Amino acid sequence: MDNKSNLLNMQKKINELDSLLLNLLAERHHLATNIADAKLKINQPINEANDEQQLLNRLIAEGKKQGLDSFYITRLFQTINQDFVLTQQAVFQQHLNPLPNNSGRIAFLGPNGSYSHLAARQYSAHHFIQSIECSCNKFEDIFALVETKQADYGILPIENSSSGAINDVYDLLQTTPLSIVGEMRLPINHCLLAITKVPLENIETVYSHPQPFQQCNQFLQQYPNWKIEYCDSSSSAMQKVAKTNSAKVAALGSEIGGALYGLTILEHNIANQSNNMTRFIVIARDAVQVSEQIPAKTTLLIATSQHAGALVDALLVLKEHNIVMSKLESRPIDNKPWEEMFYIDVQANLRSLDMQHALEKLTAMTRSIKILGCYPADNLVSTDVAN
What we know:
Radius of gyration: 23 Å
CATH architecture of the largest domain: 3-Layer(aba) Sandwich
Shape: globular
């Protein structure tokens, strides 16, 4: 057999394996639905993250024997396991909060191909049979569409593992009547994209949203001559580069978005942190109940009194009731200089007795308290693994 025929045979084998992988993933997805139905009937909870970590460690050990890198296995399993968890959560939540027609209109930031668009697609895939996508230019537009019933849900990035909190979203949560009904974490693989393969030294201008620039600043510092141009979203930046049709401009965006706009990847995974994640929240007009079989998270917005130790006193209430705090963020109060509101995420179901007792005590000792939402917690396995 000549070299060309041998290559064609190997490529054919790859195609056959890809089809086999798709069939196996589809079977795994259907099994996740069946497992959730069975757990629902016998009132068994979704597995805890510790069990999933043990499974991940076993897969890494098996993969090493076959020459597979631990981080490759982790990223692959992370995506597969997230589908498993989200599928089960959707079954539990649909039972408790049935959706009419299993459809929804979902708003997100940026044109198709943005990270928010990918998050919206992921949420829709697990909760709706049919969905209508609503692209927005600003975070304010997402809130407005949901508040005015032009959309049923909004997807918003709330924090990034590299650049931290997204303050614009936190500030908008202060005044909205909407509730947080879900969350998800999305792995972010920032790429440098251009219309064709060119030396990086030839690039003169780079476009993107401020967040990717912040998350990739260590890479960008290597090229101080590049001009930085801000866009409404990473997908807007990719769209601009595609329309400009110049080999001297580039964009920071996703690999999927780059393919959508016909761009070429110049550099992969250029964020400061190799394990770069963005947490998204889902907002809706009506709050949801969270099944007790699902790990739940509740987000509170409180304003403490102005005496010394007021915040510490409030946090001690959570400790007294065995409630774990997973996030604390402060933001200025509108029209009240030097005064702040505190956003607190706790790992607790709003319906639990401990949470209800804690809320009673917090209400009595704070100036104001608002429940922003109780929702299924993203149960994604940690990717901090050893080689």
